[in-house]
Structure formats: C-alpha cells, structure tokens
Design goal:
Blueprint (H helix, E strand, L loop, with lengths): L4 E5 L9 H10 L4 E4 L6 H18 L2 E5 L2 H6 L4 E4 L6 H7 L5 E6 L2 H10 L3 E4 L16 H11 L4 E4 L7 H6 L4 E4 L9 H18 L1
Helix pairs in contact: 1-2, 1-8
Bound molecules: 4-methyl-5-hydroxyethylthiazole phosphate and magnesium ion (MG).
GO biological process, one term: thiamine diphosphate biosynthetic process
Protein name: Thiamine-phosphate synthase
Family: Belongs to the thiamine-phosphate synthase family.
C-alpha cells in the first residue's frame, strides 16, 4: 500500500471546488491516497460527498480514506478511516470494520505512535509535523527529530502531516516518512494537478536518494 502522496480534501482551502473535483484533480497528478475531510456536513450530505470521492478514486486506483467517520467510510465503500485522539478508539473501529479495512491514526509522540500500533492501526500520521494554518487546533509542529524517533519506534507506514511543502518534502522523506499528507501544498494551489505531480516527483526523488 503506497502512502507516498496523500491528499486531503478541504473545500474551503480548495476555493469552491467540491471534494470530488479536488480528488479528481489530485489523482490526475498521481495522488496515491485521497482523504475526505469534511467538518461542516452532517450524515446524508457527508455520505453523498463520500460516494462521489469513492467513484473518482476507484477509477484512478487510488486509496480512499474518510476522516473521523467510520460509519460514512463503511457505507460509502471507502478503503479506510482516519481517526484522531477525539474520534472513535482504534480498537473499536478495528472491531467494527471488515478484514482489510484500513484504520489510520493521528499521533503526536513516540508513545502515542507505539500505542496506536498496539491497538491495531494500519498506519500512523505524525500530526502536525510542522505548524500549519489549515487546522485550527493543530498545535505546534513536532518537527523532524520526533518524526525520526517515531520512524525508529514503529514499523507501520508513517505519514507526515501538517505544513508539508515542496520546499521541505525531501527533508521529511529523508527523516523517515513513507509519505506526506497535505492540504494547502496541493489543494490550495491554482493548478491542483500540477502541484500533486510536482510533489510526487519530489517524493520519488527523495526516496531514490535514501
Ligand atoms: N491534521 C493535522 S495538520 C492538518 C491536518 C488535517 C492540516 C494539514 O494541512 P496543510 O495545509 O498541509 O498544513
Ligand atoms: Mg478526527
């Protein structure tokens, strides 16, 4: 499962593009994973958005992860769910989900990464790796030293999230991340597809060097 370029949809940062259109442009640029992140919509409209993103990602062969909501992820046929510290516990999601369903977890330290691995997470995301304005309550960035420490402590796929740009992505991969999850570096750019393609080639180049 490749997590190299993991694009998170955000309709506000996407300047009016729908989740599905953001996904379509991101996968055209080579995104390996699309996460639907929706904080405003409730049940039915969230589900409808998820079905639309599922369609786009299925056609492209990209993974589709739903943020926060296991019920929506399962109902829409997503590949997985992404859970933070205030969402459903990883163990409960694991218990409810079918075999092969991906449960991803945000972590903020070596200790929480090790715990997430023990509880059955399929990947961990160091959140936030750098400071970001895209998530109100993200807090200060943990930095590359913590990223490397998490890399050494857990063997799960490790994604860096928060403040990743074309300028720092090579350092993030060199520090041990398997992939990067981004909003503004792709979704916030005028040409979403070109930004995704550029980031993905920087990731591939950094991996080839390490
Ligand atoms: N979770 C932790 S940081 C973050 C999320 C959703 C925002 C990432 O956005 P950006 O623009 O790539 O910093
Ligand atoms: Mg959450």
């Amino acid at each position: 499962m490749a997590y190299d370029l993991y694009v998170i949809t955000d309709e506000e940062i996407g300047r009016g593009l729908s989740h599905a259109e953001i996904a379509r442009r991101a996968v055209a640029g080579g995104a390996d994973v699309v996460q639907l992140r929706e904080k405003r919509l409730s049940g039915r409209s969230f589900f409808n958005a998820a079905v639309a993103v599922r369609e786009v990602t299925r056609e492209a062969g990209a993974l589709f992860i739903v943020n926060d909501r296991l019920d929506v992820a399962l109902a829409a046929g997503a590949d997985g769910v992404h859970l933070g510290a205030t969402d459903l516990p990883i163990e409960q999601a694991r218990r409810l989900a079918p075999p092969g369903f991906i449960v991803g977890a945000s972590v903020g330290s070596v200790a929480t990464a090790v715990l997430a691995a023990e509880e059955g997470a399929d990947y961990v995301a160091l959140s936030p790796t750098f400071s970001t304005t895209s998530k109100d309550d993200a807090g200060p960035g943990h930095g590359l030293a913590t990223l490397s420490a998490v890399r050494s402590a857990v063997s799960l796929p490790l994604v860096a999230i928060g403040g990743i740009t074309a300028g720092n992505v090579a350092d993030v991969i060199a520090a041990g991340a398997d992939g990067v999850a981004v909003i503004s570096a792709v979704v916030g750019q005028d040409d979403v597809t070109a930004a995704a393609r550029d980031l993905r080639s920087r990731i591939a180049a950094a991996k080839a060097r390490s």
